Amino acid sequence: MITVLLVDDEPMVCAHLRTILGAADDVEVVGEAHDGAAGVEAVVRHRPHVVLMDLRMPGVDGLAAIERVAALRSPPVVVALTTFDADEYVIRALRAGAAGFLLKSTPPEDLVKLVRVAADGHTVLSAAATTRLLGTAGARADGRARTRDLLGGLTGRETEVLGCLGEGLSNAQIAGRLHLSEATVKGHVSRLLDKLGCANRTQAGLLARDAGLR
């Protein structure tokens, strides 16, 4: 059973999401909160697998809440809820530790599928959105050298895999490009995330862009 926490300052949005997700046999909404501070408290209380987090909320907003959740021991997967798919808030949420984002206009038939994808540890971003977002998120030149230093501990193969993450490629696509098995790619991704201190492959992809890897 995939447990989900909803965090949005609009109760009607939470009610809508609860209705859709509650119809799935393998998904359970375990709670909801209406501001970022209450959302973090609810994460600690319920320990959900997935958190759907609104970004723009009064008081403690979604960005601050995502950072607080990411700092917890064994944090859940956090997926940002947003109205706009390529603004600075989304990029900042990904850097803060969000595993991806869902538009509030996501069709009901897709929502459950995307929650399952998130629970499995995959990035919740379409290929087009990944390319667009990562393409707008490159670091300034003065930060590029610092980022490259961070990547210095990677092996040559891990660097190749990281470059592919910077393009938004899936494990299957990386395997095809580098002539590796998907299991081998998964192992490389896991190790490079650990070395870089990244919460997920989206953060690693942003680092790849910062370093100029393509």
Automatic annotation (TrEMBL):
Q: Which GO terms describe its biological process?
A: phosphorelay signal transduction system; regulation of DNA-templated transcription
Residues annotated as domain HTH luxR-type: 147-212
Sorted keywords for this record are: DNA-binding, Phosphoprotein, Transcription, Transcription regulation
Family matches, as InterPro entries: CheY-like_superfamily (IPR011006), NreC/VraR/RcsB-like_REC (IPR058245), Sig_transdc_resp-reg_C-effctor (IPR016032), Sig_transdc_resp-reg_receiver (IPR001789), Tscrpt_reg_LuxR_C (IPR000792), WalR-like (IPR039420)
Q: Where is the Response regulatory domain?
A: 3-119
SMART domains, per the entry? HTH_LUXR, REC
- Which domain of life does this protein belong to? Bacteria
Claim: ATP-binding is one of the keywords in the record: no
Q: Which residues carry this modification: 4-aspartylphosphate?
A: 54
Which GO molecular-function terms appear in the entry?
DNA binding
Query: Which PANTHER family does the UniProt record give?
Result: TRANSCRIPTIONAL REGULATORY PROTEIN NARL-RELATED (PTHR43214:SF24), TWO-COMPONENT RESPONSE REGULATOR (PTHR43214)
Please state what the protein is called. Response regulator transcription factor
